[in-house]
Amino acid sequence: MPIAGIVGAGLIGRAWALVFARSGWNVVVTDASRDVRSELGNRLAVDCATLEEFGLGGPVREVLSRISIVETPAEAVRNADFVQESGPEDPDIKRAIFADLDRHAAESAILASSTSAITTSRFTSALPGRARCLVGHPVNPPHLVPLVEVSGAEWTSPETIEKATRIYTEIGQVPVLIKREIDGFALNRLQGALLSEAFRLVRDGIISPEDADKTIKHGLGLRWSFMGPFETIDLNAPGGIADYCARYTAFYKRLADDPPTASVYAPDAVEDILRQWPNANGNRAERMRLRDKRLAALRAHKIEQDNS
Asked: For position 278, what pLDDT does the model report?
């Protein structure tokens, strides 16, 4: 069986452990925190039970039997075929981690980072094995949301990109290729555009935070759960994308000329959102649990529909 080395076992890292393990890989996982390591088995069991409940993974005991927890990155990657790093979002820390990984992992192993916004070149330039390094940015939580953005530096070999894309596909993820380096890749740039406009609308008193969320949950999000923006506009005008652009983009052009600025995230704007937000003091852990249940149900539904 192939072996995945998981370095960093927070929300993202432990989800990656399940992604590989449910696909039949043996997994060796570590985290710098002893507390995280000691709690990891129980957290994996809870997440794995959700997968089994919705038919997204095998029996809990079987999946967990493929996962080993070790103390150091060297132990986690020594025999790994694929390494997925999910450490802090800090280029200096990632630079140190990847130097360690490059020393200890087999030369044939791919070294991937789960970073949300840091480009590969910022933390791999000095590595002897930099050609086998790339970003594999998932969506949280990756055991329930399959997208992963694959992004290399100019020195990442085409073979590394091809192999990583194939492996992500084989373990049930949906890889998309970022053709050249850009901060935030694609997903977070798209998300950032939506967030900044949502913050502006609330700041300017146009809509409440709760109603902004309803606009997505009960409006755009229903379509977006199975269609992207280009397919959406292709079907929203009789003549497809060109017809849509001719009919409707005058407003979008005016909006593009007047984008939200960084001021929408100013402390007073954030405080105003928190004053209006009904869940500011809610049970976040319970809401995360319910989120995961709903995501699992949606993922199972989409798989059923895609296979029908």
From this structure: 87
Half-sphere exposure of 247 (CA within 13 A, CB side): 11
Q: Which domains does the chain carry?
A: 3-177 (3.40.50.720), 187-277 (1.10.1040.10)
Tokens of 270: 């954030």
Amino acid at site 285: A
Give the model confidence (pLDDT) of 91-114 as tens digits.
999 999 999 999 999 999 999 999
Q: Can you count the helices (H) and strands (E) in the chain?
A: 14, 8
The count of other CB atoms within 10 Å of the CB of residue 136 is 27
Percent of the chain that is helix, strand, coil (3-state, to 5): 55, 10, 30
Residue-level pLDDT at 281 = 72
303: phi then psi, degrees, rounded to nearest 5: -60, -45
Reading the block at residue 169, the tokens are: 């596909």
The string of pLDDT tens digits covering residues 164-208 is 999 999 999 999 999 999 999 999 999 999 999 999 999 999 999
pLDDT top residue among 222 and 281? 222
- Axis-axis angle for helices 34-53, 284-307 (nearest 10): 40
Sheet holding 26-30, edge to edge: 67-69, 26-30, 3-7, 82-85, 110-113, 133-138, 147-152, 174-177
Q: Which phi and psi (to 5°) does residue 244 adopt? A: -60, -45
Work out the number of other CB atoms within 10 angstroms of the CB of residue 194: 12
Residue 182: how many CB atoms within 10 A of its CB?
12
Strands 133-138 and 3-7: unpaired
109 three-class SS = coil
Q: Yes or no: say if 16 and 138 are a contact pair by the CB < 8 Å rule.
A: yes
Q: How many residues does the chain have?
A: 308
* Mean pLDDT computed over every residue of the chain: 96
